[in-house]
Amino acid sequence: MSDQLFIDPNKVSTADLIHAQRLYERRMKREKYRYYEPNGVGEEFINAFASGDYFILFISAANGVGKTALCSNILANLMFPSENFYFRDKFFKQFPYLKRGRVITDSALVEKNVVNELKFWFPEGKYGARKAGKHYDSQWNTETGWSFDIMTYQQDPREFEGVTIGWAWFDEPPPDSILKATISRMRKGGIIIISATPISGSAHLYDMFATGEVDVQVSLREGEEPITIKRKVFHMTADVESACMEHGIRGHLEHEHIVQMIAEYPEDERQARIYGKFQHLVGLVFKRFNKNVHVIKPFAINPKDFVVLHMLDPHPRNNDAGMWVAIDRKGTKYIVDEYWFKPEDVKQMAWHIKKKNAEYRVVGMYGDPSMFIEDQHTQRSLNTMMVEEGLAYIPASKTRQASDARIATALNYTEINGHMVRAPELYIFDTCKRTIFEFEHYRWDEWKGSTAEGRDRKERPLDKDDHMIENLGRALIMEQPFIEMPKPRETEGVVHNTDLDPYD
Asked: Is this prediction's pTM over 0.85?
């Protein structure tokens, strides 16, 4: 008798049915991957993977969705092709890249989440795994010619270099250095899958998937210098309800269990753990920032109705950050302009700033304290050189905690049933792209521990994407009041030329 499992009971004997049942039970025990059924979002992810259109595929999933089981079965059906309906595409039968790869995760999760999950789904007796000096099975080989190493994020990034691979699976968000090192080992082509509840270490992933592509170096021919090409990336989110037996497609969780699970999550983790949304966005310093409320279309800044503060935060290597904050009679603040590029020299910097200053009634100019430090070789500071160009700055405050608190206060507003009851103190012109970007990226530093077991948040923001934020905080803590525009002096017997700007 053949190993065919799907048979017509009307055309076979009782003995054949018993044999088929025993075969099924044996396979269910030893080859579970043959009978794996993904939920709806899992099926979508498998189809995207099998299309071959993407270089990196990322499923950011809530807890309980089954992302680790999903990726384990993708690997199992790659390495041991079966008749499983969900893995029927040609990509699983004719993998176009090297069969050598890596599975990479956090050291605290490697055995519990990854090794045990692979052993659960991989067919018994058709692969070998050995520890190779690790406390877990780190080197795997299959009878079908596949091999891979299981590695951790705590290993030196240099250990990820050297070997050319054709695939990789990251379970939980990979550090940027390790992701880049892995990409560099795919010069002959490859594919990467990432499965994670994006609690920490995921900001660089958010930026990558926001653009929809990544630069990859490939070698078209052996011995030739690699060239850089752009490859597509795929991202999908999966909320916990997608795994619900009542509300999801092929779900496996009871709704009551989901409700209980949600209630146990800390408030600042819920968006990631329930909806699969990036934690670094949930963990933004300024949670009250709302583009629909705070970002507005530009309007004319009349010098009679507004005073303006100019702030400057120069950088020796990266872009300089300049900001212009307008203040009206009521004390409402508007970020109306910004300066974000690297000039060739001080003269070019000064020219751009003076050009923007001329558009407003600037009543104060404040610079980062670093501007006032003299160069050990020239004995001159940047402020000294700016004074020579006609721009004199006052040292700004370095009190970061106080300035961040002041920004939070300025952003606050009250809305009831869609009606603004109390308006915010701060607005941003939509032309100030860098400032808006920083509000969407300025976040608390990552967890000291990358897992729930080792969680201990650092009580300070990450020192990144914060130059405009720093400028704004310094402007706000000045508490600059509105100043009435002085009236032109009336001199007896003098005829004024009304065509001239009296404040030029």
From this structure: no
